[in-house]
Design brief:
253 residues, mainly beta, Porin, 9-stranded antiparallel beta sheet, 4 helices, 44% strand, rod-shaped
């Protein structure tokens, strides 16, 4: 196609287009044209598109959303056990004495054994004597302490002056504040007679008082004792004697 032919075809097409437009047609009244709206490019860019919203009924309730807490990981017991050093485990087939609490002796049983020994120094006077004669000897004490206050014991003794006196008996004493004590008892005795050389039996009533100094332990007292003693001998040959002295000894009571 030549350039002239191309130009003619373009002119014809433009003329047909102008004639067919409503505004240019003579036989048709122009309809109400929609107002031309000029949109600025800036405003068009700022205009946000509207998205269709779903219609939700008013009485619709929102679903409850439950947020599950993350589960905590379990303690690695096997790993911990594996990392610990192996210990020797002893198996006991008897009663576990280490686990059982030990009671103090005083709490378990207030009664206990008591014992002691002492030296006696003093004087003796019988009815036909003008003055006291020197007397000395030893005494043992063994028995039971009922509690911290009361004690019951036997007291064998041997006393020597110009005659020999062998005796044994029982006595009951009371200890106050772990320091002071009072006691009394009865004895069976045998005394030699220097004039006849015979042994004369008899009985004796004795009393003592004193104080103790030493160590106080739970359920036990270990003390040194200093006591004054008095004995009245009643012999079966109608003789009567009086012994007054002191006893120095050691007692575990």
């Amino acid at each position: 196609m030549t350039p002239q032919q191309t130009l003619c075809a373009s002119s014809a097409a433009l003329a047909v287009a102008l004639v067919s437009h409503r505004g240019w047609a003579d036989d048709e009244q122009p309809a109400e044209a929609a107002p031309t709206v000029w949109i600025d490019q800036d405003e068009e860019a700022e205009t946000e598109p509207e998205y269709p919203q779903s219609e939700t009924p008013e009485d619709a309730t929102e679903p409850d959303i439950v947020v599950a807490e993350p589960a905590q990981p379990a303690a690695p017991a096997a790993a911990t056990t594996a990392t610990q050093p192996t210990q020797n485990v002893s198996v006991s087939y008897g009663p576990d004495r280490a686990a059982a609490p030990r009671r103090k002796k005083a709490e378990a049983d207030p009664s206990r054994f008591r014992g002691g020994v002492g030296a006696i120094f003093g004087g003796v006077r019988y009815e036909d004597d003008v003055a006291f004669r020197f007397l000395s000897g030893v005494e043992a004490r063994f028995g039971g302490q009922l509690d911290d206050t009361f004690g019951l014991y036997f007291a064998p003794s041997i006393l020597v002056s110009d005659a020999v006196r062998l005796a044994t008996g029982a006595a009951l004493d009371v200890t106050v504040a772990d320091v002071f004590s009072l006691g009394a008892g009865l004895e069976a005795l045998a005394s030699s007679n220097p004039e006849s050389g015979h042994w004369t039996p008899g009985t004796s009533i004795n009393a003592r008082s004193g104080f103790h100094i030493g160590k106080k332990e739970p359920g036990r007292r270990r003390v040194f004792s200093l006591e004054t003693i008095a004995k009245i001998d009643l012999l079966f040959d109608d003789r009567k004697g009086l012994i007054i002295g002191a006893a120095l000894g050691y007692d575990a009571m």
